[in-house]
Amino acid sequence: KKKAKIASKAATKAINTAGVLGAGIMGGGIAYQSAVKGVPAVMKDIRQDALDLGMSEAMKILNKGMQIGKVSVEKMAKTLSAIKPTLNNDDVKPVDIVVEAVVENPKVKDAVLCEVEGLLADDAILTSNTSTISIDLLAKNLKRPEQFCGMHFFNPVHKMPLVEVIRGEKTSDETVAAVVAYASAIGKSPIVVRDCPGFFVNRVLFPYFRGFSQLLQEGADFRQVDKAMEKFGWPMGPSYLLDVVGIDTAVHCVGVMADGFPERMSALANDPVELLYKQDKYGQKNGAGFFAYS
Ligand code: NAD
Q1: At which of 194, 228, 248 does a domain end?
Q2: 10 CA distance to ligand 1 centroid (A)?
């Protein structure tokens, strides 16, 4: 009864403040997105340089907006002051929702989620931006799994509209409703999906990447494939998209999908994407992938 009461509180409780754990590519982007849409965000990391980078990335986006006349000086100041970078977990205590965006390691995530859950108010909502780890697995050691779900943003956060709200076995309807409302309030288009390897987007995307790898094995030129997909009307082709996603991230996801759907998604022998990975070509993040970046 007590749990039901707390859960229904979450449904009516407005999300006025957010906490983001991790100030990396995703955490920094999520904190910015929340702040720019009027929900102040505490951005917590364990490294000062990560916090500094998170703030400078936010500044870069705002500067670009100013250059094209879309962001005023006041808006810039207001947004930046709505992001509170911190090394201290205690600063996350009063927030209504937490989005965990630390490294993709189940043990690290488990420890971070359990620690922060113990600090939050009873009716606060906890979410994870994991790309590949099962939400039910992450919920296992939590005291309030009904107030936990996945909240999967895409990179770059300020440009990509979709957010997957991943419902675990124990996630309550009230939690899903509150997370959907928060995602919409910060300008995103949420979809509710169930907890399975690849969630929704990667289940669609990785068979496509697999088809692309097979074309390359049959002798196709990756540049021509990209051009053809652009002519088809997609904003970018698979090679460029893989460089944006990160070749290392993609290889990790291929493994997760192969484990999750062994009959449909078994790993390809001599996958060209894996060959790039073995040459330490991770895409845009380290300057070389299918294409070279300076
Ligand atoms: P990243 O390496 O850029 O950032 C991770 C940050 O977490 C680092 O700044 C690190 O210092 C910090 N961190 C590590 N331990 C911490 C702790 N205990 N407390 C607070 N901060 C801690 O990684 P990223 O690409 O931003 O990915 C973060 C999460 O988002 C991962 O789960 C990843 O799978 C997911 N994700 C990534 C992408 C993407 O394209 N990069 C897209 C969607 C989801």
Answers
A1: 194
A2: 26
